[in-house]
Specification:
Number of helices: 4
Number of strands: 3
Shape: elongated
Strand content: 5-15%
Structural class: alpha+beta
Number of domains: 1
Largest sheet: 3 strands, antiparallel
Order of helices and strands: HEEHHEH
Strand order of the largest sheet: 2-1-3
Length: about 140
């Protein structure tokens, strides 16, 4: 299970998703009723960010254990990739509610989730291609 590199990439996605609850994506002054208040934008800021982050992390973790069914694993990896892009879009939409601020260094975790899903999908696809070529040789 863990000797496959895509399992490591998927585990990293699950870890990064858990870490995003703690560290901010954006730091700035939030506009709430025209009274700016300093707030950190992370996965706990809104309910939709929390739900989408939990689903993305859980999907990555569950996908690790589907190594017997590579087609389903690849589809779930693509779904996780889509959810990660949707999560990033939601973060950038939420940034519009800030008067001023800056991106935090920890936003790298979100982009690392995206890259890890891409690398996991690439590894699953290569495994599937290798199995097909071995079946042809029999």
């Amino acid at each position: 299970m863990l000797q496959r590199i895509q399992s490591v990439w998927l585990l990293l996605v699950a870890i990064f998703a858990a870490v995003t609850f703690r560290f901010p994506f954006y730091i700035g002054d939030y506009l709430l009723d025209e009274i700016p208040s300093s707030i950190d934008l992370n996965a706990r800021t809104t309910i939709w960010l929390s739900i989408l982050t939990v689903i993305t992390g859980a999907l990555a973790f569950v996908t690790i254990f589907l190594f017997d069914n590579r087609k389903l694993q690849l589809k779930l990896c693509y779904a996780g990739l889509f959810l990660t892009v949707l999560l990033l879009v939601m973060y950038f939409i939420e940034i519009n509610n800030f008067a001023n601020g800056s991106m935090a260094l920890w936003c790298i975790f979100h982009f690392a989730m995206l890259g890890s899903f891409i690398l996991a999908a690439r590894g699953i696809w290569k495994d599937q291609k290798l199995i097909k070529s071995m079946d042809r040789l029999r």
